[in-house]
Amino acid sequence: MQPTLPQHDIVLLGVGHTNAHVLRMWKMQPIPGARLTCVSNYPVATYSGMLPGVLAGLYPPERMEIDLVRLCAAAGVRLIVGDVTALDVRNRELHISDRPPLPFDVLSIGLGSVPNRAGLVEADDSLLEVKPMQTFLPRLAERLVASGGRQPPDTPTHMQPLRITIVGGGAGGVEIAFCLPMRVRKVLGDFPFSLTLIDSSDKLLKGSTAGLKKRVERDFAQRGVKVLLGRRVTRIKHGTATLDNGETIPGDLVLWVTSAAPPPLIKEFSLPRDDRGFLLTKHTLQSTSGEPIFVVGDTGTIEGEKLPKAGVFAVREGPVLWENLQRLLLNERLQDYKPQRGFLKLLNRGDGTALGEYRGFSFEGKWAWRLKDRIDGKFMDMYQDHTPGMIAKVAPVSEARSSQMRCAGCGGKVGASILSRALARLDIPRNEHVLLGLETPDDAALIQPPPGRAIAATVDFFQAPLDDPYLVGRMAALHAASDVLAKGARPIAALAMATIPTGRERKQEQLLYELLAGGLRELKALGATLAGGHTIEGPHITIGYTILAEQPAESVRAKGKLREGDLLILTKPLGVGVLLAAHMQARCKAQWYGPLVETMLQSNAPAAALFDEFDVAAATDITGFGLAGHLLEMLRSANLAAKLFWDNIQLLPGASELLAAGVESTLAPANRQVEGEVDDGPALCLLPAYSVIFDPQTCGGLLVGVTESRATAFINRLKDLKFSAAIIGRVEEHDPDFWRVRVDNSA
Q1: Percent of the chain beyond pLDDT 90?
Q2: Where are the domains of the chain?
Q3: Do residues 507 and 543 lie in contact, with contact meaning Cβ atoms separated by under 8 Å?
Q4: Rounded to whole angstroms, how far apart are CA atoms 220 and 212?
Q5: Which of 189, 320, 482, 743 counts the highest number of beta carbons within 10 A?
Q6: Neighbours of 713 (CB within 10 A)
Q7: pLDDT at position 643, please?
Q8: Cα(107)–Cα(12) distance, rounded to whole angstroms?
Q9: The Cα angle at residue 480 between residues 474 and 484, in degrees rounded to 5
Q10: Which CATH topology does 122-260 take?
């Protein structure tokens, strides 16, 4: 039986403690008939409980991070990295910037909270908020260097110290006050600094026992941390914090770690709120609106409960949310969450000891730190295991449909109503050269090129390399268009080819719409339109385009027009194939995934537009056959040879590490069949990264031959256009008795 599209779409907005539990459970036992999608504005989530330990140097930064790229890949979960702008409750859609709305059948909102800025009327760049925590460490380091840089590093210690102020006397502010000094010393060395903590309450650690407060006050006194209570900060400007009584406190750097406030985004959501602005839920964690929307962690307030915004509650909500997601899909009664009335508090002192309290008793010592370390470590271990999990079973759409064998031939086409609805949602532009297209659909499109122009035609398609139809649609159009761009042709129109898995009509329509919307976005940018296409049902999502472009017949940049002495310029780094292979194995790290997607979405059109200006005679796009394969095609056509400068060949982040680990694309072995024409030398051939020249590229860069006199200027223009361009070789005379390609360390 062919795989089918899911019946239900579950979407997690934000991946805090509660939603992360759903992600982990999905990895172990996915819900049949459903698809899970995570939407996050960052490819990593952070565990706030470990931030103080990272500041103190007790953990590396990655220990507090959940790599959503790897975890979602391991769990078979779709990840969309983007900024949500709105929630359409009526149509059950999330609006995400720079892409079509995302439909959902069930939504769980877990956006956490932000520090409360109530009373703060003005602030300049002296203010540093802890959130978003994903960027806090680099922002902190930058600000420390900038603030400490006002005086030379060798300034005598009797000179003015760096004045750091922490606003917020809750657990977060107290732990940062304990642990921040270690980070400051790591960044600034022996540069002097002072530390002040301010809180609007008249006591530290509101809601904690007197014993714990006394221990903290004692430690602060011993460490020289000045504490100012019962005051609000109203202004932060020019290195000074102004209080609500008019008093001013020096603050070269002001860290804002106040109590929880609702994330600004949820103000745009048409859902019930409490008196502080948090989204209101029943004890089942479902919104009191009755919609299939859950709100968890700090973002939600349970009706009738007055719970502090603490991570322990978010963690305990996880199993209830997981159970209720399943019950909601089955139309069963939902389970109530019963919050605990007391919980263990542990405060990291940054020196291998901790303070704590439980059930009214306070304590401290190394054993308390070991307990905290064990609890936090066990929690993070659950989310840093990237072993691939079970594959979700997608139930058939209906018993009637599942009992039928799917037809082949024209009986395997996607239904006309699905196609027409998907096309109706697209904003397809007119093109003066398309005489007959989708405006008046017919049996064939009719294209008329400008007078004196030829039609350049190419076709390319692939199985979706990512579980994001919109991005895949964009990539498919860019990938297909690169062939004609390398010839210097201008795209006019495209014909789409798509394979869509079976499923409910609305799911097929949405998938087809996202694929075509992504492709159309890039076609518009190229000045082309969608003129037609064909869709069929099949086991996997495939998408591609036939690109029709106009070009002067007398100025074709054929591969065989390379010239002896030309310098070879590559406009993009290599490594797409190995990174995509790693992603399928949940081995592509979040810090690698961003650059990978970015390079695949970079159009080659701006580079191709420079060809006439820089006298480019020959170019090709580097795609499936890899750098070696496509270069050899050019050299054979021109009967020339080339020397490659290995040190100049740029790789995407992570490519070298993955190649060294033995990861490679399934096409790479076939691409290495041309290795007999490549002289790599005894040293280079032993480098694991050397095999990147056989790595198949999806949406790869252009390989261009340019005269030596124009090469530097060409490179500079490409870099102005944000291309990672480099001169990677030189075209030489070919001696039939020697290799066609020589690879040396440098020029």
Answers
A1: 80
A2: 8-113+263-383, 122-260, 409-555, 559-744
A3: no
A4: 12
A5: 482
A6: 13
A7: 94
A8: 6
A9: 130
A10: FAD/NAD(P)-binding domain (3.50.50)
Could you read off the pLDDT of 482-512 as tens digits, one per residue?
999 999 999 999 999 999 999 999 999 999 9
How distant, in Å, are the alpha carbons of 104, 300, 498 from that of 92? 6, 19, 26
Average pLDDT over residues 588-607: 98
Residue 439 pLDDT: 81
DSSP three-state, residue 40: strand
Listed range (59-63, 323-327, 425-429, 724-728) with the worst mean pLDDT:
425-429
Write down the pTM of the prediction. 0.93
- CA quadruple 644, 647, 650, 654: dihedral, nearest 10: 130
Q: Is 476 helix (H, G, I), strand (E, B) or coil?
A: helix
| Maximum distance among all Cα pairs of the chain, rounded to whole angstroms | 89
Torsion sign over Cα 206, 209, 213, 216? negative
Rounded Cα distance between 584 and 563, Å, is: 40
Q: For 384-504, where are the alpha helices, taking DSSP H only?
A: 399-402, 416-424, 469-486
* 179 touches 49 (CB < 8 A): no
Mind giving me the DSSP string for 235-264? EEETTEEEETTS-EEE-SEEEE--SEE--G
pLDDT at 401: 42
In whole angstroms, give the CA distance from residue 565 to residue 732: 6
Class of domain 8-113+263-383: alpha beta
Cβ-Cβ contacts under 8 Å for 432 (sequence gap 6 or more):
none
Rounded Cα distance, 558 and 425, in Å:
39
For the domain with range 559-744, which CATH number is right: 3.40.50.980, 3.40.50.11260, 3.50.50.60, 3.90.650.10? 3.90.650.10
Average pLDDT over residues 148-153: 55
Angle at which helix 469-486 crosses helix 505-525, to 10 degrees, equals 40
CATH 3.30.1330.10 for the 409-555 domain, yes or no: yes
d(CA 93, CA 649) in angstroms, rounded, equals 44
Give the active site residue among 38, 407, 410, 685: 410
Residue 436: per-residue pLDDT: 86
Which residue from 293, 329, 295, 321 is spatially nearest to 92, judged by alpha carbons? 293
pLDDT (tens digit, 9 = 90+) per residue, 425-474?
A: 999 999 888 888 888 877 888 988 888 888 999 999 999 999 999 999 99
CA dihedral 434, 436, 439, 444 (to 10 degrees): -120
Can you give the pLDDT at residue 682?
62
Q: In which residue are the tokens 């010393």 written?
A: 185
- Measured in whole angstroms, the distance separating CA 357 from the mean position of its chain's CA atoms is 39
Question: Which residues are within 8 A (CB) of 466 and not within 5 positions of it... i.e. 6 or more apart?
Answer: 472, 475, 583, 597
Is 410 part of the annotated catalytic residue set? yes
CA neighbor of 320 nearest in space, from 332, 336, 339: 336
**Identical fold, 122-260 and 559-744:** no
- Concatenating the DSSP letter of every residue in 314-337 gives HHHHHHHHHHHHHHHHTTPPPPPP
Q: How far is CA 314 from CA 18, 23, 301, in A?
A: 5, 14, 11
Mean pLDDT over 683-690 rounds to 74
Q: Where are the alpha helices (DSSP H) in 330-413?
A: 366-383, 399-402
209 is written with which tokens? 């026992």
- DSSP secondary structure string for all residues of 632-660: HHHHHHHTEEEEEEGGG--B-TTHHHHHH
Which pairs count as long-range contacts for 269-273, CB under 8 Å and 24+ apart, including other chains?
Answer: 269/86, 269/87, 269/89, 269/109, 270/87, 270/89, 271/87, 271/89, 271/295
**Rounded to whole angstroms, how far apart are CA atoms 485 and 620?**
9
Distance of CA 294 to the CA centre of its chain: 24
Distance separating the N- and C-terminal Cα atoms of the chain: 56
